[in-house]
Design brief:
Blueprint (H helix, E strand, L loop, with lengths): L1 H26 L6 H12 L2 H21 L4 H4 L5 H14 L5 H18 L3
Helix pairs in contact: 1-3, 1-5
C-alpha cells in the first residue's frame, strides 16, 4: 500500500503541473502593468481547471503524508523525482517542448539516482 501512496503523490503532482501549464498557455502572457497582472491572475485563479490543479497539489500532499507513515523519507523522497521524468515526457507530447541531449542526460541521471537510492543495503 505504501507504493500506492507514492504513486498517488506523483500522479496528482504531475496532473497539477500539466493542467496549470495547459490553461496558462491558453490565457497568454502575463501583462506588464500591475493592475492588468492582478486581473490576469485572478481570472486564472477562478478557472475551474486551475482550481483542479491546486486541489491536486493538496491531494498529492495527503498521499505524501500517508506515504510517510510507510517509508523513511530518505527512501521515499527520491521517488518524487519520477514526477520530473513524467512531466518532461508528457510535456514533449502535449506541449511540444523541445528534447535536448542535456535534458535526456539529466533524466537518465535522475532515473539512475532513483535506482541507486531505492536499493537496500
Amino acid at each position: 500500500m505504501g507504493y500506492f501512496y507514492i504513486f498517488g503523490t506523483i500522479f496528482f503532482t504531475v496532473y497539477g503541473q500539466l493542467v496549470l501549464k495547459w490553461k496558462i498557455d491558453q490565457q497568454g502572457n502575463l501583462p506588464s502593468a500591475w493592475t492588468e497582472k492582478f486581473v490576469f491572475l485572478i481570472q486564472l485563479l477562478f478557472n475551474p481547471w486551475i482550481l483542479s490543479g491546486f486541489l491536486s497539489a493538496f491531494v498529492a500532499s495527503l498521499f505524501w503524508m500517508a506515504a510517510m507513515t510507510k517509508f523513511n523519507i530518505s527512501y521515499a523522497y527520491p521517488f518524487m523525482s519520477l514526477s520530473f521524468v513524467l512531466v518532461f515526457l508528457l510535456s514533449v507530447f502535449l506541449f511540444h517542448d523541445p528534447v535536448t541531449v542535456q535534458k535526456m542526460v539529466g533524466l537518465a541521471l535522475i532515473v539512475a539516482g532513483i535506482v541507486v537510492t531505492s536499493q537496500s543495503l
